[in-house]
């Protein structure tokens, strides 16, 4: 989807992109800054950090958690209490500014360092780099740098979500399956869930303007996001939706499935 979609359709450019009524986006990566800057407020809202840690970060960083001022020592210290790594900065206190290094006490470990960001309530499992090797008589998983995969031989409690993905390699690399999917023989020798060998330059920081364009064309959107996902934060999604300045049609409420509360929703026009 790009900014040229609708002008191209209107000009009769082929092939047409059939986006006439609406589209849906799930856990949508939209704006690098808006998405990631909500990690500290999210960690507080989900009780992963204390009120004191959050208030210290809030008062010290002036709402900028993703790219903090490198000479704002109070802010850097506050953010390090939350998480040193995942907030996209390195704490380096240079002697140029005549500041002493920030050192945390043992009881002040980074609060979210050991959280499973994909689902904060699930175990954070240790991954190994491995690659499935298939033969007619057996299936082996040998160490390799091409694919991140849980070692089947080392599965231990607790259960890890990644275990569910292991059979996909067996399925997708099956000649019978590839034939059924009409994949040309020889084009896929080793299927991967994530092909990390593709080389590209990431130069788009935000796609917010595309949502604006589609909204101006009266194209409806369904945006959904999980509230236990710390990679693609629902708070970031709410932020850019609010920035669209839509009219509130239905306020925050729960919706049910078979009489049980499933999620909460807000409808805006």
From TrEMBL:
Tree of life domain: Eukaryota
SUPFAM superfamilies: alpha/beta-Hydrolases
GO molecular function terms listed in the Swiss-Prot or TrEMBL record: acyltransferase activity, transferring groups other than amino-acyl groups; serine-type carboxypeptidase activity
GO biological process: proteolysis; secondary metabolic process
Keywords linked to the UniProt accession: Carboxypeptidase, Hydrolase, Protease
InterPro entries for the chain: AB_hydrolase_fold, Peptidase_S10
Pfam families noted in UniProt: Peptidase_S10
Gene3D superfamilies linked: alpha/beta hydrolase (3.40.50.1820)
Similarity comment text for this entry: Belongs to the peptidase S10 family.
PANTHER family reported in the protein's UniProt record: SERINE CARBOXYPEPTIDASE-LIKE 7 ISOFORM X1, SERINE PROTEASE FAMILY S10 SERINE CARBOXYPEPTIDASE
UniProt-recorded name of the protein: Serine carboxypeptidase-like 18
